[in-house]
Amino acid sequence: MVKTIVKFVENYLSRLGLIIYFSKPSPPPAPDYRGAAVAQGQANIDAARATAKLGNPSFINPLGRRDVDFRPGDEVFITDTLTPLGQTRLDQEQRIGTQLGGIAEQGLTEVGKGLGTPFDLSQVGDITTQPTVAERDAISNAILAREQPLLDAQRQATETDLLVRGHNPGGSAFEGAMDQLDRKENDLRLAAILAAGGEQSRLYGMQAGERGRGIQEQAFLRSLPLSEVNALRTGNQPMMPQFQGYQGATIAPPNIQGAAGQQHQAAMNTYNQQMAQAGNTMSGLFGLGSAGIGAYGSYLGCWVARAIYGETNPKWLIFREWLFTLAPKWLLKLYIRFGERFASFIKDKPKIKNIIRHYMDKACLIILKEEKNGIL
Question: What is the pTM of this model?
Fold first, then answer.
């Protein structure tokens, strides 16, 4: 009966122009990633060689010519040939450079003499002004001596004014006025001390600056021969005329590895579509099979076989055919009575399911042999 149902579905879908898969398609083979990597490496090398040739051509310009020779083993040999006038100019610059080098070599004798003489600071002079308290007091006393006559005259005028107004010494008004004069004179003394310190710093800075300039002058004279030698040695060097570079295009290598991966992905997509179509076909077949044997009643759901094989495996239909055609009657009765509860019991017991699957497979083989021999 199963064979009849399958044949009916095949004929029906064939008339509709559809393709049906009653077995799982084979997955596509894995791509040769090693071969793709080797091919990608060779493509990279070829692209690099082509880019090098495009970017480094042989050419001629007013300065001369450049010949680029690509030799075996990826060796590149570049030859620059100047025009006669350019070659003469280059030779002239080389001779000038050689003569300057000879002069610089002669100047090394003077450099050796200068560096061999110890640095003499006796010609620079010492700093004679040293900031001390005595020097500071001398400057501040000189400032105060100039201001003292004015301070004395102001004190005498203040005392006379206070006495005329009736304020005698010891009184609060008299003592207050004297206190203000004392504060003013004290502020003047502090200002004189600060000014004296500033004057000392100024004098010390002037002498230190003079001494520093003297040291710099001596150091300059000591290093002058060496500077002259370096100027001669590192002056304008003869330079080869620069040929204008060529702006070539870059060749990108083909993405062989990416193409291999895309090809494999496309094959996997096709495979997945076939698997989905096969699943849909099996579902339709199961529906037709159920309708074809619906005469047995809804209670004949073949619960155990579906629990063993799964809803999408057609083997449960083959076992169902064996159950209703070749199985002992007592087994059929037990299956109908306890099959649904037994299927619920073994659904999470894989070891029991494996044992039962072994015997169900044998039953399926019997059905297949019978159909092959034309008995069913």
Answer: 0.32
